[in-house]
Amino acid sequence: MRIFFPSAVIVFVVAVVLCGCEHFLFNPHFAVQESGLNWVDIRRYDLKSTPINRVNVRIDGNGFVIVREGTSMLVNNPFAHTMNSSSWNDVRETRITLSREEIVPLFQLLVDNGLFEEHRSNRQAVSTNESIFVSANIDGKTCGSEDDVYLYNPDLAEHLKTVLLMFYHPQPRQHR
Q1: I need a labelling partner for 9 at 20 to 30 A (CA). Which of 68, 105, 118, 165 fits?
Q2: Torsion 125-152-109-47 (CA) sign
Q3: Alpha-carbon dihedral sign for residues 112, 29, 111, 117
């Protein structure tokens, strides 16, 4: 009996680790630690314009913020390969540098408002003319939205939009 008990505990621990049972132990609300390895990538699509206007704000834990806007696929995908598109060259980029201390409260705001919570379908989703997607790595915890954040967490979507608008200031387009 003594040999069986330690073996059973080891097997159970290995099974828990290998089965991906982390979500039972994972707390989606945690205190964000300052790290240059943290990042959040927010992507917004304006669905009422043709072609679709895209905005991408990448915030790194080291204080670097990169804002890209335009109708080009390059705004959200620097490896895009649709070079024949008429909007291929419509991309503008701005770089901003903040202190690392200024970035932590932004990350904490998003964590506190459900960035790492499990995605649940929202039957009463808000109907908007925009879509917001997010990917993040904060304190070694990762998330990424395959669906529009407005569909499963409209409150988080509004917070993401607020953070995006802290760095993206829409300008009237120049017509050529």
Answers
A1: 118
A2: negative
A3: negative
Within a domain: residue 134? yes
User: Can you tell me the distance from the alpha carbon of 163 to that of 139, in angstroms, rounded to the nearest whole number?
Assistant: 19
Q: At 44, which CATH number? A: 3.30.1560
**111: buried, middle or exposed (CB in 10 Å: 19+, 13-18, 0-12)?**
buried
Whether the predicted pLDDT of 53 surpasses 80: yes
Q: What is the mean pLDDT of residues 81-96?
A: 84
Candidates 58, 48, 103; CA nearest to 78 is 58
The total number of structural domains in the chain stands at 1
Backbone angles phi, psi at 113, to 5 degrees: -100, 20
Is residue 158 domain-resident? yes
Domain, as residue range, for 67 = 30-167
Chain position carrying tokens 């945690």:
30
Specify whether the CB–CB gap between 37 and 59 falls below 8 A. no
User: Residue 169: pLDDT band by 50, 70, 90 thresholds?
Assistant: confident
Cα gap 49→17, rounded to integer Å: 47
